Amino acid sequence: MAENDKDFSHAQRASLLLLAVGQDRAAKVLKHMGPKEVQLVGSTMAQLGPISSVMVDQVLEEFIIEIKNETGLGLDSDEYIRNMLTNALGAEKAGSIIDRILLGANSKGIEQLKWMDTRSIADLIRLEHPQIISIILTLLDPDQAADVLTLLPQNMRSDILMRIATLEGVQPAALRELDDIMEKQLTGSDGVKSSQIGGIDAAANILNFIESAISEPMMQDINESNSDLAQRIQDKMFVFGDLINVDDRGIQTLLREVSTDQLLLALRGVDAGLRDKIFANMSRRAAEMLRDDLEAAPPARLSEVEAAQKDILSIAKRLSDAGELALGGGGGDEFV
């Protein structure tokens, strides 16, 4: 690995920082991270290779500078989170995000589910009422929910997705039903307002992580039952080709997080316009090398290409949620 900090990804910086602070402190930090983050940091640590003092110094220096500029350090309140997100995103867009974050933070049962493998989650909930399944899937990360949905019986999938798309809120009584399923106490009382989870965006986000062979029949079923709902879901879906609508700065931000192997696989068979946009936001040398690799690469399975594209879309969504790029897909109202 190069010893210039501009070549380090966020995961590499985090891994170097944790390695620098020692095992005990690193373990305490990892306890506050989600399962995907722990897995990412752990695998990145294993791939770092030889670590020099220069690399560690650079990362520590950057961390110290960032922490000095952190205005919210030491604050840990729901009110602070609500104000921060409302100021950043506006009241309308922040509403559902705030409720989902705060509900998830206070829902120990949901957090426990996030550490389970998707097969175990599917086995746990498959006999529950479809509305309960819909609520649980909405509280999971979209890619995890997508995996669980594909493991449920085929005759349930479309109904569950429709319920997710039309879900407007969850009453405390419904949360108590989740308590029974997961044997964990979730917060909430009869006087608390409904939590704004679910909806068209949630359904579209889950579909984005399901391979087309499974998602297309689901959308056909929904279209036959409710064509207007199907169209609204379709309009909100963000597919790989929609990256052409992301501005150049956003593409450059995305490319810094995507590996060359991922990009090489994901660009198979995409429109020339999107390829050209990707090439235009790379250095001339990197673009030429990628073009040559694409021309020389052997055929790849469609499932592998779709998986690489979905991985990149997942990164794009994460960056969008962090405000580092604006997705300009079919939703039409994704800019903040």
From TrEMBL:
InterPro entries: Flg_Motor_Flig (IPR000090), Flg_Motor_Flig_C (IPR023087), FliG_a-hlx (IPR011002), FliG_M (IPR032779), FliG_N (IPR028263)
Subcellular location: Bacterial flagellum basal body; Cell inner membrane
Domain spans labelled Flagellar motor switch protein FliG N-terminal: 9-108
Topology with respect to the bilayer: Peripheral membrane protein
Pfam families per UniProt: FliG_C, FliG_M, FliG_N
Statement: the UniProt record of this protein carries the keyword Transcription: no
Keywords assigned: Bacterial flagellum, Cell inner membrane, Cell membrane, Cell projection, Chemotaxis, Cilium, Flagellar rotation, Flagellum, Membrane
Flagellar motor switch protein FliG middle domain: residues covered: 119-189
Key word S-adenosyl-L-methionine present: no
Flagellar motor switch protein FliG C-terminal domain segment(s): 221-327
NCBIfam families per the UniProt record, alphabetical: fliG
Function: FliG is one of three proteins (FliG, FliN, FliM) that forms the rotor-mounted switch complex (C ring), located at the base of the basal body. This complex interacts with the CheY and CheZ chemotaxis proteins, in addition to contacting components of the motor that determine the direction of flagellar rotation.
Protein family according to the UniProt entry: Belongs to the FliG family.
Protein's UniProt name: Flagellar motor switch protein FliG
Gene from which the chain derives: fliG
